[in-house]
């Protein structure tokens, strides 16, 4: 079964300080890790987003995939139409807590070389996405 949940995103301005909870976007599209790459790209296109939060069967966030990452996988020589998101996620994470400071989140993003991080609660459920402004 493939789960897709779409929630409206926030559009507020980012303050200079504070916590991730003050500036994160709501979770947005969440999909199950058994979704194929092609379907995920289609969901991204219809939701007009550049990323999807990926969850396992129990609803725990397992990662975040981007349009560019999925395009690289799709264009790779080992690609088949059966490749699922769980096949390309690898290790769980990185994730941040809603109480993480903006400075800590920025440091983690630079260290991890990512433009967006899933924000999760103490149970691993996705609360939102903290992304760099473009």
CATH class: Alpha Beta
Tell me the CATH architecture: Roll
Distance between the termini: 34 Å
The third-level CATH topology is: CBS-domain
What is the CATH superfamily label?
A: CBS-domain
How many separate domains make up the residues? 1
**Secondary-structure element order, as H and E?**
EHEEHEEHHHEE
Total helix count?
Answer: 5
* Sheet with the most strands, sense and barrel status: 4 strands, mixed
The spatial strand order of the largest sheet comes to 1-3-4-5
Task: Name the average pLDDT.
Answer: 83
Keywords: CBS domain
Organism: Streptomyces durocortorensis
Domain CBS: 24-80
Protein name: CBS domain-containing protein
What do these coordinates show?
The structure is a single chain. The chain is 30% helix and 22% strand. The chain has 134 residues and is of the alpha+beta class. It has a single domain (4-8, 19-131), classed as CBS-domain.
Describe the structure in brief.
The chain is an alpha+beta fold. The protein is 30% helix and 22% strand. The chain has a single domain (4-8, 19-131), classed as CBS-domain (Roll).
Which helices and strands occur, and which strands form pairs?
Layout: E1 4-5, H1 20-23, E2 25-26, E3 30-32, H2 37-47, E4 51-55, E5 61-66, H3 67-75, H4 85-89, H5 102-112, E6 116-120, E7 126-131
Helix pairs in contact: 2-3
Keywords: CBS domain
Protein name: CBS domain-containing protein
Pfam families: CBS
């Amino acid at each position: 079964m493939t789960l897709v949940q779409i929630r409206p995103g926030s559009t507020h301005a980012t303050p200079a300080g504070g916590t991730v909870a003050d500036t994160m976007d709501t979770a947005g599209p969440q999909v199950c890790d058994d979704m194929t790459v092609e379907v995920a790209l289609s969901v991204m296109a219809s939701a007009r987003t550049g990323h999807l939060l990926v969850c396992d069967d129990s609803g725990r966030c397992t990662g975040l995939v981007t349009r560019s990452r999925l395009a690289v996988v799709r264009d790779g020589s080992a690609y088949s139409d059966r490749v699922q998101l769980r096949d390309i996620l690898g290790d769980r994470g990185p994730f941040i807590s809603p109480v993480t400071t903006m400075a800590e989140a920025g440091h983690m993003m630079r260290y991890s070389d990512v433009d967006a991080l899933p924000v999760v609660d103490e149970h691993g459920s996705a609360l939102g996405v903290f992304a760099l402004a473009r």
